[in-house]
Amino acid sequence: MTAHHHASHAHAPAHAEPDPDLSPTEYWEQRYSGSERVWSGKVNATMASVVAELSPGTAIDLGCGEGGDVLWLAEQGWTALGLDISATAVGRARDEAAARGLDGASFEAVDLDAWEPEPASVDLVTASFFQSNVALDRIAILRRAMTALRSGGRLVAVSHAAPPSWAKDHPATMVSVQDEAAQLGGSAEEWEVELAAERPRAAIAPDGSAGEHLDAVLVLQRR
What we know:
The chain has 223 residues and is an alpha/beta fold. It has 6 helices and 7 strands; from the N terminus they run ααβαβαββαβαββ. The protein has a 7-stranded mixed β-sheet, with helices on both faces.
């Protein structure tokens, strides 16, 4: 589900309150169909810094949008599947993968609220800014996605921990990485919390001045 305001964007569209009559599919299709490209196509830098240390394998990216993270994963040698609720976004991601000749990147348009992964089938699940201002059962989707991880596999979730430094009154719900680690970590016998921290990330404010994002970074490994 295109639930993230992805850090790979140049300048995010203005955050308007969503039309309550729109379904999540309609909302995100409207969001994408109204623009040539919503995001810059670059990988989320915080996610990349974590995953760059891992040996490539198979991966699933939740809320892949136009595919920036999946394309980067494929370039690093991963076989990566991006899932998103928006068929428009998935179409753009497929076109970009084809343009780059990336056979390791594939994409599917699915409603993650109804999606069921194949158990113990992948080495990595990524979720970059998997947050939404329309209906999204975030924790339930992440828990279900984690069943796809093999022993030794990891969940890497990067979320907004605070509004941008230039938008303290930002309406979106922020993520507490400690709360999320407790919610998702489950039993210590099954999961190891490898990382649960906040990381600042330099950004450019809409007026061109220097600013900062604060990312919540969670890495869980299945034992």
